Amino acid sequence: MSDPCIICVAITGSVPTKADNPAVPVTVEEQIESVHESFEAGATIAHCHVRDDEGRPTSDPERFARLKEGIEKHCPGMIIQFSTGGRSGAGKARGGMLPLRPDMASLSVGSNNFPTRVYENPPDLVDWLAAEMIRHDVKPEIEAFDLSHIFQAAAMVEDGRLKRPLHVQFVMGVKNAMPVDREVFDFYVRTLRRLMPDATWCGAGIGRHQRTLNEWSIAAGGHTRT
Amino acid sequence: MSDPCIICVAITGSVPTKADNPAVPVTVEEQIESVHESFEAGATIAHCHVRDDEGRPTSDPERFARLKEGIEKHCPGMIIQFSTGGRSGAGKARGGMLPLRPDMASLSVGSNNFPTRVYENPPDLVDWLAAEMIRHDVKPEIEAFDLSHIFQAAAMVEDGRLKRPLHVQFVMGVKNAMPVDREVFDFYVRTLRRLMPDATWCGAGIGRHQRTLNEWSIAAGGHTRT
Ligand SMILES: [Zn+2]
Ligand SMILES: [Zn+2]
Ligand SMILES: [Zn+2]
Ligand SMILES: [Zn+2]
Hints:
CATH architecture of chain A: Alpha-Beta Barrel
Number of strands of chain A: 12
Number of helices of chain A: 6
Number of domains of chain A: 1
Helix content of chain A: 25-40%
Oligomer: homodimer
CATH superfamily of chain A: Aldolase class I
Mean pLDDT of chain A: 88
Strand content of chain A: 15-25%
Shape of chain A: globular
Structural class of chain A: alpha/beta
Bound molecules: zinc ion
CATH topology of chain A: TIM Barrel
CATH class of chain A: Alpha Beta
């Protein structure tokens, strides 16, 4: 409750392309510009994906390096969080940019369904990504797409695969995963406090649910993401 | 609460082999014998997997047909439930035995992690299995390995992909999926009642957790599985 509220900015999730929405920043230069605008508007965390020349999601470390450099230059003090999400690569490629030592990186610790496919996070890949984050001193943001993911994160802290205190993001509103539901949200918060009292958390709603989750998160003492 | 308590018998889940435990029934004849013993002991539902000649899990419709025939002959009135779980086949092969019209079949509506791999239930396969069950008049048992699976089942009832009233099984104690946790169990029951008041349910604990889940289930008005 006494934590300052952290406002994250999610620039360019990995799905939309220029064809869907011409305002979406796609090149590294456009992304830096977009993060800079959010930074001036008060955002403190930049959640980053990168794209290749065709606008497709990629985990290319070279692009992540340029993005990090630009944000560090234009947004001094901003927390940089890289995505290791599965949309932008397969297997260990998803963690190939962790040696760049961003402040944070997203980490999914379980699997679930997405709108048209399985979001695959096999146990051995999860363990490898977690170990890489410890090795390069990167703080994970646990992406909890379902309730068991909170338990899995707690188990990983318990046996040393993750370092406390954790930061957990509750993701709601993804089709075929967890819908936006107030009672589940409250149970998530309660469960996290029970299992990991020292953890921080934020709620993320997808698309039109963003505002709802921000309101719930602020009221419940979590952080928000815009 | 006024429902009669249904005792299921889970013969030979798909993992153990003779090498692990010589008492595990493996051939169709051994399985029929094992189901018959449970039937005489009062079990009313037989949850069935089958194996090939090497003892490996399979979805072979011919073996399912022989098993069904044997149970019908030796255990008149027993409810026969076929597994469509992912351990015994890939893709649509998992539903190849549904035209045999067992009384019930298991149905996973989401994906999650298992001890060493991803338990993959892609959205289009889930929809196809659900449609096959409607087509062949097979009642699904929804296998809820995580909280979002209950919401997904409710959404599928809502838009007609599944028929009410549903029967849902809460599965706990699988490594890397949902652990055995009393507060989660209570929240599962509460959520199911809120989303689908007409649904029936049972709790299943894996291995040494079987007894715990049975106790919780009986006390909370669910069904049990032995
Ligand atoms: Zn992301
Ligand atoms: Zn956040
Ligand atoms: Zn089974
Ligand atoms: Zn049952």
